[in-house]
């Protein structure tokens, strides 16, 4: 368990930081949390490559528990328009994190025998896509308003040009697309630290 502690701490730090930074806007379509959260996939993939599937899943579950705690704390903090974290956001966040991260672990394991970059790239791209789809749909889609009838998310359904320039779509679709684009960009950038960290940890175990 001691060997997993750095991964667990890194995952916990990313989850906590992302839950805080998501409260601060970056431009019109993003929050600062969009730039820290994707690092969770880097941690999962490093643990998977170096220590295996079981270890990666333990780190994911630790991150999930930390996320649940953060969501609970957020529901107790009142912002300008109500609790910082609503039931739909908490549910969407938890489902997205757990589902996407476990999928990442499974895809990585299936591809681990290929070129070094294939498993982390493919697993992160697939996991990030599922994460974005699940979170934004559960948290903001008007079709799921039954999940929390008292929470008015009609603002997220306002019809606006996609990212300000495309066809008319609900606002939450633009937010999801912007978030997904950042995840895709960071999945490519993260290949560099992935390679370096894996080499260092593997050398230490040798």
Automatic annotation (TrEMBL):
Major subcellular site: membrane
Cross-referenced Pfam families: Vut_1 (PF02592)
Membrane topology label: Multi-pass membrane protein
Compartments, as annotated in UniProt: Cell inner membrane
Keyword Lyase among UniProt keywords: no
Molecular function GO terms recorded: transmembrane transporter activity
Record keywords, A-Z: Cell inner membrane, Cell membrane, Membrane, Transmembrane, Transmembrane helix, Transport
InterPro entries given in the database record: YhhQ
Gene Ontology cellular component annotations, sorted alphabetically: plasma membrane
Membrane-crossing residue ranges in chain numbering: 29-47, 59-77, 89-108, 120-140, 180-198
Domain of life the protein comes from: Bacteria
Keyword Transmembrane helix: yes
Biological function: Involved in the import of queuosine (Q) precursors, required for Q precursor salvage.
Family annotation (NCBIfam families): queuosine precursor transporter
Record-stated family: Belongs to the vitamin uptake transporter (VUT/ECF) (TC 2.A.88) family. Q precursor transporter subfamily.
Protein name: Probable queuosine precursor transporter
């Amino acid at each position: 368990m001691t060997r997993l502690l750095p991964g667990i701490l890194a995952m916990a730090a990313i989850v906590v930081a992302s839950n805080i930074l998501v409260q601060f806007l970056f431009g019109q379509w993003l929050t600062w949390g969009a730039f820290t959260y994707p690092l969770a996939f880097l941690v999962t993939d490093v643990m998977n490559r170096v220590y295996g599937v079981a270890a990666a899943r333990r780190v994911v579950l630790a991150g999930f528990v930390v996320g649940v705690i953060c969501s609970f704390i957020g529901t107790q903090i009142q912002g300008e328009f109500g609790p910082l974290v609503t039931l739909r956001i908490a549910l969407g966040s938890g489902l997205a994190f757990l589902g996407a991260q476990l999928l990442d672990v499974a895809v990585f394991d299936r591809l681990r025998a290929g070129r070094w970059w294939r498993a982390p790239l493919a697993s992160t791209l697939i996991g990030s896509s599922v994460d974005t789809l699940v979170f934004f749909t559960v948290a903001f889609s008007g079709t799921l308003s039954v999940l929390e009838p008292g929470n008015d998310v009609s603002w997220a359904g306002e019809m606006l040009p996609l990212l300000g320039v495309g066809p008319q779509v609900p606002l939450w679709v633009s937010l999801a697309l912007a978030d997904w684009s950042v995840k895709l960009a960071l999945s490519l950038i993260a290949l560099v630290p992935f390679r370096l960290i894996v080499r260092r940890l593997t050398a230490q175990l040798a």
